[in-house]
Task: inverse folding
């Protein structure tokens, strides 16, 4: 009997793959940093019983229409806006993601990005490396305090709540905006629920952690940035399309806000000519929110376990389909 066929869309290293290869036929795209070309992805999807995918892989109706044998898509991420979940559900394809295992790691990165942007860490490090540090002065690279300030978390899911937990160590006032109230965060962390408008006008640090949906796309627009304090710092560790990048650039250039820390962009990867990269008050990272060795291995293992469970007729651990 032919073994079920699994295609993995990026080169990954994991001990867990050994067990998978014993039971299933497994093929892995040979490059780690280069995404699988669309034509090859379509060709492999047509043969596959399972796909282990990245956020950069578009799982749309065109692909799902050719994937006649496909039973499961395991996405190596919490988000799954690269997958047409309704279309997959119509075809009986299980969609899985990797929640929980990356919560602390992503919260660490979000807060590190907040701190780096506020205290101008990247600017300071570059000045030293480039030999431009010629002496001490009272306001040399003076940034913004973090302690005793107000943080506003937009998207108070597990990662948002964990970022807020870190903020308590800096004695910050915590505001949040979410589709629904988070009673646990309010009770445990002293977080206060506000409207989106109140949050962006009040907070010193606005941290975006909302998923990308039709409702959240472009929610940080020209009007939103204009309502922020001139001293406000915008942090985005969610999805690039949640923010209007042209409006953000304009707000930074005009001094409507003080800075931005960005781990995500609308189109990724961005080129060195991206306008936001010309600004000294922008800290830009290459979408590394969950990129610790330990967490990435846990994410890979969860994807592999979900695939194995579905192909063996069992329920996966983390399922996205309604």
Result:
């Amino acid at each position: 009997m032919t073994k079920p066929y699994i295609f993995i869309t990026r080169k990954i290293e994991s001990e867990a793959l050994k067990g998978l290869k014993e039971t299933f036929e497994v093929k892995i795209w040979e490059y780690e940093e280069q995404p699988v070309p669309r034509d090859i992805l379509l060709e492999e999807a047509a043969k596959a019983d399972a796909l282990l995918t990245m956020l950069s892989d578009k799982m749309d109706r065109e692909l799902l229409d050719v994937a006649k044998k496909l039973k499961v898509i395991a996405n190596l991420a919490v988000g799954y806006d690269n997958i047409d979940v309704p279309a997959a559900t119509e075809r009986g394809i299980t969609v899985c993601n990797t929640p929980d295992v990356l919560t602390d790691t992503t919260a660490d990165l979000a807060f590190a990005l907040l701190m780096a942007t506020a205290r101008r860490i990247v600017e300071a490090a570059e000045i030293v490396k480039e030999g431009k540090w010629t002496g001490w002065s009272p306001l040399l690279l003076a940034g913004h305090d973090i302690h005793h300030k107000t943080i506003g978390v937009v998207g108070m899911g597990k990662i948002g709540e964990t970022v807020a937990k870190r903020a308590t160590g800096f004695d910050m006032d915590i505001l949040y905006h979410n589709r629904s109230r988070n009673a646990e965060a309010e009770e445990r962390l002293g977080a206060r629920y506000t409207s989106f408008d109140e949050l962006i006008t009040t907070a010193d640090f606005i941290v975006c952690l909302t998923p990308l949906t039709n409702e959240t796309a472009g929610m940080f627009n020209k009007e939103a940035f204009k309502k922020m304090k001139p001293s406000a710092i915008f942090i985005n560790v969610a999805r690039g399309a949640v923010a209007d990048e042209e409006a953000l650039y304009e707000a930074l250039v005009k001094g409507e806000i003080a800075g931005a820390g960005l781990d995500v962009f609308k189109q990724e990867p961005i080129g060195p000519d991206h306008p936001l990269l010309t600004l000294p008050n922008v800290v830009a990272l290459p979408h590394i929110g969950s990129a610790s060795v330990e967490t990435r291995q846990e994410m890979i293992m969860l994807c592999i376990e979900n695939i194995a469970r579905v192909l063996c007729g069992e329920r996966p651990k983390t399922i996205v389909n309604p």
Observations:
- The CA atoms of residues 152 and 199 lie 6 Å apart.
- The longest helix spans residues 293-311.
- The first strand starts at residue 5 and ends at 8.
- The radius of gyration is 21 Å.
